[in-house]
Every structure is written in structure tokens, then in C-alpha cells.
User: What shape does this take?
Amino acid sequence: MIRTAAVLAILLLGTGAPLQAQGPTEQPHPWEPVIIEPMEREFLNSCASCHGRDGTGAGFLTRLFRGIDPGDLTQLSARNDGTFPMERIFSVIDGRTEVAAHGDRQMPVWGDRYMDAVMSEYGPDEINETRVRNRIYELVHYLQSIQAVDAEPEN
Ligand code: HEC
Assistant: This one.
């Protein structure tokens, strides 16, 4: 094991290629407290099985069911000219209107799931819809926080 790691390290260093910065997955500096955001927990609970713990698409369900491609959730901004497509991502996660429009979707309809969850927690309540939207927005903000950042422009 140790020897393999050493050989690997030599191989990697030997190429002379600069190691790529890992963006948001980079370890925090040791003096920074590690903050586990609540929505990171929700992401790990509900989304990582398909999207991978880092959102890049390598969850175990994705590996299990070949042909399911959940995309790379760290590239949403990059694929949208550098702007995070907030509204679109909200409605993709929510899914309630989208399903009506296309009827074809491999991802669970989170708007329905979260509505079921708040219904069983609070009963019928006029602010349930707000609760559901808040949960989805928190996930949207979490996804925004894990977008791959462009490399610093060289000059
Ligand atoms: C059962 C597997 C599965 C789970 C669990 C899942 N997704 Fe997905 N997701 C997909 C698939 C597959 C797609 C690709 C579109 C499609 O086929 O529905 C997708 C697409 C997406 C997209 C659109 C990506 C793009 O490029 O436009 C977003 C955003 C997203 N998922 C967020 C989430 C969030 C947030 C959760 C957790 C609350 C979640 N997903 C849970 C399978 C899943």
C-alpha cells in the first residue's frame, strides 16, 4: 500500500504537470473552522446517491444503473456563460411544473417529496408551499456554492 502510494506520488510529480486546484473541494486551511452547512447535509442525504458527494455525477446509483447521466452539478455556471442559472435550477429540482410539461424525468420530483414531508410534519398549513420553496432555495444556494471556479486569468 505505502509503496504503491509512493510510486504514484513519484509518477505524479515526475510528470511535471502542475496539480490542478480543486476549487470548492479543496481542504480548508487548518485554522478555518469546518462548517457543515445544513443544506450540505440535505444534499448528502438526498442527492449524493445519484450526483456524487461532490456533485460531479458519480453517485453509487449512477454507477449501478448505467445509462443514467445526472450531469455535473459543479459545471452549471460554466455551462451557462459563467452565470449560475438560478431560476432554471430551482424549477429543475422542484420538478412539479416540469413534469407537467415534459412528463419524462429520471430524477425524483423534490417539490412533491418535500411537500409530503412538510404535510406530515405540520399538517395542512397555508405556509407549507413557502416551506417547500425555502428548502429548494437552500439547495439551489448550496449548488451555487459548489460551482467550479474558473482558473485565475494569467497575465
Ligand atoms: C435517483 C437519482 C437522482 C437523485 C436522488 C437526484 N437526482 Fe438530480 N438528476 C438526476 C438525473 C438522472 C438528472 C438528469 C436529468 C433527468 O434525467 O431527469 C438530474 C438532474 C439534476 C439537475 C439538473 C442538472 C443540469 O445540468 O441541468 C439538478 C440541478 C439536480 N439534478 C439536482 C438534484 C438535487 C438538488 C437533488 C437532491 C435533492 C437531486 N438532484 C437528486 C438524478 C437524480
Notes: The pocket of heme C is lined by residues 46-47, 49-51, 61, 68, 70-71, 73, 76, 89, 92-93, 105-108, 110, 139 (CB under 6 Å).
